[in-house]
């Protein structure tokens, strides 16, 4: 196990200047394809919402995914292998997200204080664990070659490590609602930030395809997943509502489903024709070509699930 939390940082930045040409603020609802239906918050475990998955959950070409809990516990399903966890480890702050390595043979976990923990072949490139942050870290995204990653804080501050270049941030910029997630572009030369009100902020070569800024939502947005071809993104709300923009197609949502616990994350698929939602109790909802490979929805967890990554 390589569980490392560094006090030193590598190329850590909390930028305060916005590049006007690289940023698009949430100003409309262009591309809106699904409105979140009322719900009490999240997930019936073992929910399978489609029957046309092209791949199974086992074998060399199988699908799979990981879930991570706030205490660092990692749950693996299908072809996603277990490379270690922080379960039973005393943490300074809770885990808030995870990201897979480029070949799926490892993963990173990130805590709200910016501590980064690497497992398997996921390289450790630094962390914000020793920095006094203005706002807690809420998510991370890896670079396409897996040799770096970005961390994003609730105030929109962006921290880059390894070969992840810094393209701008919202640090010190007033925003209506806190940032809840980050997604990288296909070539890694830009990224999107999403706020809990669905506002989208684009940096680098990330194009703006629309947002939910100004739209009245039944529940806050909790995550973002980029389209496979990089020309769009999917947003997920805590009630299971799904919103698609650009090239991202809508395959369904849990917005009208009575959920046991709120949805906490969304991930795409390799072919780009589907997406997966994860709930705080570990329940999994699959749509399009996303295969259901199991869930922890029926297990009594020590801590709630906070993130999802796919392989």
Count of β-strands? 19
| Principal-axes shape call | globular
Radius of gyration: 17 Å
* CATH architectural grouping: 7 Propeller
What summary fits the major beta sheet?
Answer: 4 strands, mixed
Kindly report how far apart the N and C termini lie. 20 Å
Note the run of SSEs as H and E.
Answer: EEEEEEEEEEEEEEEEEEE
Class of secondary structure makeup: mainly beta
* Contiguous uncertain segments of 5+ residues: 1-54
**Going across the major beta sheet, what is the strand order?**
1-18-17-16
| The named CATH superfamily | YVTN repeat-like/Quinoprotein amine dehydrogenase
Total of domains: 1
The CATH topology comes to: Methylamine Dehydrogenase, Chain H
How does this structure look, described?
- Helix content is 0%, strand content 33%.
- It has no helices and 19 strands.
- The protein has strands spanning 47-48, 64-69, 74-78, 95-100, 106-111, 116-120, 137-142, 148-153, 158-162, 179-184, 190-195, 200-204, 221-226, 232-237, 242-246, 263-268, 274-279, 284-288, 305-310.
List keywords for this structure.
mainly beta; 311 residues; four-stranded mixed beta sheet; Methylamine Dehydrogenase, Chain H
């Amino acid at each position: 196990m390589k569980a490392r939390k560094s006090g030193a940082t590598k190329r850590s930045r909390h930028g305060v200047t916005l590049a006007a040409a690289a940023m698009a603020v949430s100003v409309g609802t262009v591309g809106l394809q699904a409105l979140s239906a009322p719900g009490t918050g999240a997930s019936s475990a073992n929910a399978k919402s489609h029957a046309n998955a092209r791949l199974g959950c086992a074998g060399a070409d199988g699908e799979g995914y990981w879930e991570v809990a706030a205490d660092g516990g990692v749950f693996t399903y299908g072809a996603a292998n277990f490379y270690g966890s922080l379960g039973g480890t005393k943490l300074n702050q809770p885990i808030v997200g995870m990201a897979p390595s480029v070949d799926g043979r490892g993963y990173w976990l990130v805590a709200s204080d910016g501590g980064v923990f690497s497992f398997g072949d996921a390289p450790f490139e630094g962390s914000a664990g020793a920095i006094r942050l203005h706002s807690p870290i809420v998510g991370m995204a890896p670079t396409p070659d897996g040799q770096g990653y970005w961390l994003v804080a609730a105030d929109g501050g962006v921290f880059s490590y390894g070969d992840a270049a810094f393209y701008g941030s919202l640090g010190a910029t007033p925003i209506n609602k806190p940032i809840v997630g980050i997604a990288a572009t296909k070539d890694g030369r830009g990224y999107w930030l999403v706020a809990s009100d669905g506002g989208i902020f684009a940096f680098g070569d990330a194009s703006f395809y629309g947002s939910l800024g100004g739209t009245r939502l039944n529940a806050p947005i909790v995550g973002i997943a980029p389209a496979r071809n990089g020309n769009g993104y999917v947003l997920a709300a805590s009630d299971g509502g799904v919103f698609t923009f650009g090239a991202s197609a809508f395959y369904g949502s849990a917005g009208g489903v009575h959920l046991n616990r709120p949805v906490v994350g969304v991930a795409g698929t390799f072919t780009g024709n589907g997406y997966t939602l994860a709930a705080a109790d570990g329940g999994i909802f699959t749509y399009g070509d996303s295969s259901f490979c199991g869930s922890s929805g029926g297990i009594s967890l020590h801590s709630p699930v906070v993130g999802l990554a796919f392989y």
